[in-house]
Design brief:
The structure is a single chain. This protein is α+β, with helices and mostly antiparallel strands. It folds into two domains: 51 residues; 46 residues, Carbohydrate-binding module superfamily 5/12 (Seminal Fluid Protein  PDC-109 (Domain B)).
């Protein structure tokens, strides 16, 4: 292959390579922007959850409705209320989250 043929080949490939690289960069930019939107949404969700303050309410009492953030002692363990519930911490797994498990002496 002559030098002139090589120059012609390079000149012919350059626009195709430029187009390929431009598309790849645009796709990467779009993916990063989508990731940033997802990350911002997750961060907002975590900040919203963190806004709940904790309040110790003593020993769990049957018949009382507890609100998110309420903490109770039940059966030697500490539970945190995740959503309004009158349910027993050991039975209502959607309403309560075990925070500190009873230890053994």
């Amino acid at each position: 292959m002559t030098l002139e043929e090589l120059d012609a080949l390079i000149d012919g490939l350059a626009p195709a390579l430029k187009e390929l690289l431009t598309r790849a960069v645009a796709a990467e930019r779009t993916a990063r922007e989508a990731d940033q939107v997802t990350i911002h949404a997750r961060l907002a969700s975590l900040e919203e959850k963190a806004a709940v303050s904790l309040k110790f309410c003593g020993t769990w009492t049957q018949g009382r409705t507890y609100e998110a953030g309420d903490c109770v002692q039940h059966g030697g363990s500490l539970y945190i209320c995740r959503a309004a519930t009158p349910g027993r911490p050991t039975e209502d797994h959607d309403g309560w989250r075990l925070a500190v498990k009873k230890g053994s002496a």
